[in-house]
Design goal:
With 469 residues, the chain is of the alpha/beta class. The protein contains 19 helices and ten strands. Strand 7 and strand 8 form a beta hairpin. The longest helix has 33 residues. The protein starts with 10 loop residues before the first helix and ends in a 6-residue tail after the last helix. This is Pyoverdine biosynthesis protein PvcA. It comes from Streptomyces natalensis ATCC 27448.
Length: 469
């Protein structure tokens, strides 16, 4: 454990600690191991669903469970799902699946997820997918295979990547979101699931499926919500003491509560103008900007008057070296981003767009709401984390490498080792190396490890052979 637990590695410290991994080793040994794990996991889940369906046949009112009952059991697997019975029962889910199969249609799963990795140096060291996304995709791939095998009409699992949907609030450049989605598709191919698991850009999915009038109505509905929230809540925000002000708003009404929750989340996810300027000037995050960002996040719950002047924690760009002025600007920017984020969420919820475009699909979410299934995309240890808001890594113990999901700042506080991809330039524009080339070009780690030996000795793939998906 490092002396200062809320301190990120400096560029020099990062360079000293990092170890390299050859791109060919990753593609030719590690990814095939993960692909085999997906196949093994899918086969095991099929057998388990069959056994549970026979055991629980009484809950479905049938003596001989068929495909709809077995698929329902697969979607109630307690290791992958955390669905509440008052949100959706097994029988309700079975009935929906039975009707789809009776019409000769594939069983469809839709999952709004994988928005993007934010510009947030406390969460990650880059905006490309890393092993957090890879292992979450592996679980989705296994589930897609399970449904496809169990359904006599086949299955189709669509990941609705919604990064551009929320760019109204978060301001991540479209090109970054497109590269993120491209990597997801490449990795799905490496996992052997391209025929059953698909990534669709949420905005394109809506535009292609909705009528022109309804798509325009959505834009207008969002604009109405945005104006309402920014007018009713936006200018009331108190950047001097956000914790006290937000505590009062949380009890005001449902929308106020949603805004408060969103603010604390988006405060470490928005693409702040001042920090974007600093990145542009330096071609990335300079040490001073990382320190300033970390100090801003740590100071969020405190009154601005408690800063007592920290010129070393300000920026030359944006609001200048005055840290109090900088934080006031950043807090307001985060609050307005929260208002826009909630506005688009409310607009799409009011119009119920996913249900309009895929009325018979089974909707999965990372939160779990009535009528939906709560799919856990991380390991049980990190069940409350999501890939896009974490940095991926491996915990090495007992001859096994276990995927982990956590914030970058926690990994670097523990002194974990960054793993950098090497060797992609020798492959030119080979599409198979495209995702790794992005990581290498920007110096973003593929993962962090607590023991570098499996990376240096090229034994990581063996340690992943028994890893659960």
């Amino acid at each position: 454990m490092r002396r200062h637990p809320f301190a990120l590695y400096s560029q020099g410290e990062f360079a000293t600690k990092a170890v390299g991994m050859d791109a060919d080793y990753w593609l030719d040994f590690v990814l095939p191991t993960l692909r085999a794990n997906v196949s093994r996991a899918a086969a095991g889940k099929v057998d388990a669903a069959l056994a549970r369906a026979r055991k629980r046949h009484g809950e479905y009112g049938t003596a001989r469970p068929g495909a709809p009952e077995v698929i329902a059991e697969a979607l109630f697997d307690t290791k992958w799902f955390r669905t509440k019975k008052d949100h959706l029962t097994r029988a309700e889910l079975r009935d929906r699946i039975r009707d789809v199969i009776a019409r000769g249609e594939p069983v469809q799963l839709v999952f709004p997820v994988f928005s993007r990795k934010p510009y947030s140096p406390v969460k990650n060291r880059g905006v490309a997918p890393d092993t957090a996304e890879l292992h979450s995709l592996a679980r989705c791939a296994a589930l897609a295979h399970v449904i496809d095998v169990l359904s006599p009409t086949g299955g189709r699992f669509t990941l609705l990547a919604d990064g551009r949907k929320y760019n109204r609030a978060c301001r991540t450049p479209d090109a970054v979101v497109e590269d993120y989605q491209s990597t997801l598709r490449d990795w799905i191919g490496e996992l052997g699931a391209s025929d059953v698991l698909h990534v669709a850009d949420y905005e394109e999915w809506l535009r292609d499926g909705l009528s022109a009038d309804l798509f325009q109505a959505r834009q207008q509905h969002y604009a109405t919500w945005e104006k309402r929230l920014l007018t009713s809540y936006g200018e009331l925000f108190d950047p001097e003491d956000p914790r006290s002000w937000l505590a009062g708003l949380a009890d005001h009404d449902e929308i106020g509560s949603q805004l408060v929750h969103t603010f604390w989340s988006i405060a470490t996810s928005a693409n702040y103008e001042a920090f974007a300027t600093a990145r542009d000037e330096h071609g990335g995050w300079p040490d001073a900007a990382r320190r300033a960002y970390a100090y801003y996040v740590a100071s969020l719950p405190r009154r601005l008057s408690r800063h007592r002047g920290r010129p070393d924690m300000g920026l030359a760009a944006g609001a200048g070296y005055d840290v109090t002025t900088l934080h006031r600007t950043l807090r307001r920017e985060a609050w307005h981003a929260a208002c826009r984020y909630v506005a688009i969420s409310l607009a799409d919820r009011d119009l119920n767009l996913i249900r309009q475009l895929a009325p018979d699909s089974v909707k999965l979410t990372i939160h779990g709401k009535p009528g939906e299934l709560h799919l856990v995309t991380a390991t049980s240890k990190d069940a409350n984390m999501t890939a896009q808001h974490s940095t991926g890594g491996y915990s090495i113990s007992g001859g096994q490498a276990k995927p982990t999901y956590t914030y970058l700042i926690d990994r670097e506080a523990r002194g974990e080792i960054p793993v950098l991809i090497k060797g992609t330039p020798r492959h030119g524009s080979d599409p198979r190396h495209r995702a790794l080339a992005r990581l290498e070009a920007t110096g973003q780690p593929l993962a962090y490890v607590d023991d570098a030996e499996p990376v240096l000795r090229h034994t990581l793939h063996r340690m992943l052979e028994r890893t659960e998906v």
